[in-house]
């Protein structure tokens, strides 16, 4: 036995997927944080200049937005909006992933399922959720269900499509190896296809999260009492541009945070499946 | 050492010559007695639609033999091997293992792939090697025993908890070999398993393969385009004609003592014959593609 390597114990699959640490070491990390800070400060500066040029009736300045946020936070509107929108997004998105991933696996694996479902997927994925807002309210009422269903709708197709693409991309020799090692069709699906597809499912889930944020505002246009989308829409009635700014910025921050959480969980739990985020 | 090369006109039984001192019997060797399945290919052909990949293949591979399939690239060696593994079906003729037709993938017919992409990257080496036993529902203790035995056999016991991506190319191919042997197959099919490795690693793994084969008693069909590799390992070498519609051109018995010595005159003679046979096929293939005139002109110009 002459070959022994003592390669660093990097995360799995450094060969095909170069290592990417979430946390660069030492000075590099400080530099990154510094550049982020510079970018944010520059953005705030531009925003301030634009606000000074057009005045508070068109653009709320950073300071006005901050005080509006304080005001909305103090009477509970902001917190309740965040909670209500988050609930709708997480439930709708979660259901979308839970349904989309297995359906995508079946579509990718079983030809007849693909042939039966593909026409519908190819049809509906071009119809934006906002087109269904009216129908959702008429059919499902003005309660939570209509909003959750719209979010589910926007999430499920992209997860399905990504998952089935992942199944198609599974290396043929892995499938053959598993079969010749004695795995049944079901065991191949469970032990080889599913794990190989994890990175694709994860990409689908992240894209679906983005879509959910795009959809929440339209889902809350009609008859939502509370929520970030509803906050943005009702602010118009009061002529409160600064509240609109608060709603928009909160949406952005919330999306960033959720994506970050998703990435951290994926890195911790799924990195051995080659999840690169 | 008498005349070491004996060209056969028709497939026959090559005698298995193992020239080693008797070693202490291990569990592997005890298991070897029930191992080794005979492969018989009769008049087999494989077509994909209108494309005829191989035809008229007759091979009688007795249990425990090490057969090398040698041929120019693209001649259908791997296609034939895939059929032996049950991944594809022969379109005509028959293919049997111990008299039973090969109708699909079977743990009895293990396959070592050329690319280590065939390993399961999300599983540790231990989990890769015990995949077969796990699919059969073996107990955890049995799995550990199997992993210990076969990782020991390929010298990777210390890597049990690593992932394939953390291993070198040569180590990954060893894991593939251990994973196949852990199923205790009667036939091990190897598709240019060392083709992607550097020369030194390849040499070490060839020696390892010879050793492992001796101790396991499996029948091995080893696809390669490397003449030296074939001489080093094989009991018999089957040379294939250039594709498409490739068949077996010639069959040589390598009656040389093991471990093989490449500088043995008989080995050199065999190498020349094999080189001649393959060279003929390569030229034929180029003629078919209209490349030989061009090459001749270039040769004259140079």
TrEMBL record, chain A:
<feature type="region of interest" description="Disordered">
    <location>
        <begin position="1"/>
        <end position="27"/>
    </location>
</feature>
<keyword id="KW-0812">Transmembrane</keyword>
<feature type="transmembrane region" description="Helical">
    <location>
        <begin position="240"/>
        <end position="258"/>
    </location>
</feature>
<comment type="similarity">
    <text>Belongs to the binding-protein-dependent transport system permease family.</text>
</comment>
<feature type="transmembrane region" description="Helical">
    <location>
        <begin position="213"/>
        <end position="234"/>
    </location>
</feature>
<feature type="transmembrane region" description="Helical">
    <location>
        <begin position="148"/>
        <end position="170"/>
    </location>
</feature>
<feature type="transmembrane region" description="Helical">
    <location>
        <begin position="90"/>
        <end position="111"/>
    </location>
</feature>
<dbReference type="InterPro" id="IPR035906">
    <property type="entry name" value="MetI-like_sf"/>
</dbReference>
<feature type="transmembrane region" description="Helical">
    <location>
        <begin position="123"/>
        <end position="142"/>
    </location>
</feature>
<keyword id="KW-0813">Transport</keyword>
<feature type="domain" description="ABC transmembrane type-1">
    <location>
        <begin position="82"/>
        <end position="266"/>
    </location>
</feature>
<dbReference type="InterPro" id="IPR000515">
    <property type="entry name" value="MetI-like"/>
</dbReference>
<keyword id="KW-1003">Cell membrane</keyword>
<keyword id="KW-1133">Transmembrane helix</keyword>
<feature type="transmembrane region" description="Helical">
    <location>
        <begin position="29"/>
        <end position="50"/>
    </location>
</feature>
<protein>
    <submittedName>
        <fullName>ABC transporter permease</fullName>
    </submittedName>
</protein>
<dbReference type="Pfam" id="PF00528">
    <property type="entry name" value="BPD_transp_1"/>
</dbReference>
<feature type="compositionally biased region" description="Low complexity">
    <location>
        <begin position="1"/>
        <end position="13"/>
    </location>
</feature>
<keyword id="KW-0472">Membrane</keyword>
TrEMBL record, chain B:
<dbReference type="Pfam" id="PF00005">
    <property type="entry name" value="ABC_tran"/>
</dbReference>
<keyword id="KW-0813">Transport</keyword>
<keyword id="KW-0067">ATP-binding</keyword>
<dbReference type="InterPro" id="IPR027417">
    <property type="entry name" value="P-loop_NTPase"/>
</dbReference>
<feature type="region of interest" description="Disordered">
    <location>
        <begin position="1"/>
        <end position="28"/>
    </location>
</feature>
<dbReference type="GO" id="GO:0005524">
    <property type="term" value="F:ATP binding"/>
</dbReference>
<feature type="domain" description="ABC transporter">
    <location>
        <begin position="39"/>
        <end position="267"/>
    </location>
</feature>
<dbReference type="InterPro" id="IPR003439">
    <property type="entry name" value="ABC_transporter-like_ATP-bd"/>
</dbReference>
<feature type="compositionally biased region" description="Low complexity">
    <location>
        <begin position="15"/>
        <end position="25"/>
    </location>
</feature>
<dbReference type="InterPro" id="IPR003593">
    <property type="entry name" value="AAA+_ATPase"/>
</dbReference>
<keyword id="KW-0547">Nucleotide-binding</keyword>
<feature type="region of interest" description="Disordered">
    <location>
        <begin position="283"/>
        <end position="302"/>
    </location>
</feature>
<dbReference type="InterPro" id="IPR017871">
    <property type="entry name" value="ABC_transporter-like_CS"/>
</dbReference>
<protein>
    <submittedName>
        <fullName>ABC transporter ATP-binding protein</fullName>
    </submittedName>
</protein>
<dbReference type="InterPro" id="IPR050166">
    <property type="entry name" value="ABC_transporter_ATP-bind"/>
</dbReference>
